[in-house]
Amino acid sequence: MDNLLRSLRLAAQDLLAPRMLVLALWPMALSLLFWGGLAWLFGAAWKAEIAGFLAATPFQDLLHWAGAEWLMAYAAIVVLALLWLPALYVTAILITSLFLMPFIIDFVAQRHYPDLERRKGGSLLGSLVNSLVALPLYILAWVILLPVWLFAPFGIAVSILLNAWLNQRLFMYDALSEHASAAELKDKRHAGGGELFALSSLLGLLHFIPIVNFLAPVYMGLAFSHHGLSALATSRKGAPA
Description:
Blueprint: H1 2-15, H2 18-55, H3 58-66, H4 71-112, H5 124-144, H6 152-177, H7 182-189, H8 193-205, H9 212-236
């Protein structure tokens, strides 16, 4: 727990550095520009497609039985939002993972772990492959579990768990790839147990906080960098990480 709180605290301090604040503005801004543009161009068509899909399910019969067919248009908007928002989130963290993490890692390492040897067990290609494996699984799980949002608390819980899994899968590879050897990278990505999952879950909650979520991708990168590099430094000293 101490390492978790330390990672969150140091990440918050580092985020306030001018260099990190400038980086923090880009992922969500680019994601908003991309998905906002697509929504402006194709939003009406997407809404119509979703409404057509819902009309072919028992949901249409339920609305007819309740005399509330007018709700179909609103239901289509809700489903569209439940697909658009995670797309926005995933795009922002993907931009952070692939393009900004090298800068984040270099910043954290120089500032806090200058003596930690760089064994370069990972690569940009490895990060890309990791993302290409994780993202389809995340998207598939999100789509399959959409009906859970009919029971809002369960939907939020599922969202937190999926975000936690994706955060951990993407950022732990990137956080360790420069400094860990191939063997250390494989070991540390799956080590940490409950503490690592708690960190991933807490960071996943940032997705739900307005304004904060705009800076969340880079803050998550900083937090995972601290967690990963601290664990790596500790293990190299011969103590349990």
